[in-house]
Amino acid sequence: MTMRRDHHLFGHMQRKQNVLVRLTSTGDDGIRAATEELTRVIEQPHLQLVGLCGTLEPDITDAHLVDTVVGRMIGLMEQVRRDHGVILTELILEEGHDPSPGAGARLLHQDELIAAIDEALDEACARNRFPRPSITLVTGPAVVAHPAEHDRSAVNPRQGEPIS
User: Fold this and answer.
1) What pLDDT sits at residue 60?
2) CA distance 20 to 122
3) Edge-to-edge strands, sheet with 134-138
4) CA 129 – CA 123 distance, rounded (Å)
5) d(CA 73, CA 88)
6) 27: alpha, beta or left, given left = phi > 0 and alpha = psi -120 to 50?
7) Of the N and C termini of the chain, which has fewer Cβ atoms inside 10 Å?
């Protein structure tokens, strides 16, 4: 019995690149634009969509607004599961920053913000019957690391090339 060996095929295989798509807005226009970007990423054979990244605006002063933002993001994650059969497992929320003096007083206290996000996530996941994603809250100035230190990088879904 002779086994066929296609070594040349393995040379062309590459590991899929994990990708998070950033939402520029959680309003209706932002969700529509994100839906198109998500579809483009999913259609790329070398990309694997793993989650969403969004910003909590600096004017969020109560838990109701956090609930709205988180609810829309989980709703979009459920839509991806329904439309494409892909379950997104990661959600990154960045705390927005207002550079004006005294702006920090308008933001929820960090403990209140974490509690509001946790409750909003539980409610949105239950409402959408969506498995709870892992969540990362980025507060303070963003830390930028060298791309080689991470398993993820920004990729332009239209061209499939890394964004530098």
Assistant:
1) 64
2) 21
3) 17-22, 47-56, 90-95, 134-138
4) 10
5) 11
6) beta
7) N
Residues in the chain: 164
Whether 43 contacts 75, CB under 8 Å: no
Q: What are the structure tokens assigned to 87, written together?
A: 């379950």
- Condensed to tens digits (0 to 9), the pLDDT of residues 99-110 reads 555 544 445 577
pTM of the model as a whole: 0.71
Please give the Cα distance from 66 to 57 (Å, whole number): 9
Angle between helices 63-84 and 28-43 (to 10 degrees): 30
Q: Label residue 6 by pLDDT band (50, 70, 90).
A: low
Distance CA 107, CA 113 (A): 8
Integer-rounded Cα Rg, in Å, for the chain is: 19
Q: Is the pLDDT of residue 3 over 60?
A: no
For 20, the enclosing helix (H) or strand (E) is strand 17-22
- Confidence at residue 151, expressed as pLDDT on a 0 to 100 scale: 46
| Token pair in block for residue 15 | 């590991």
Residue 56's nearest CA partner among 81, 101, 25, 88 is 25
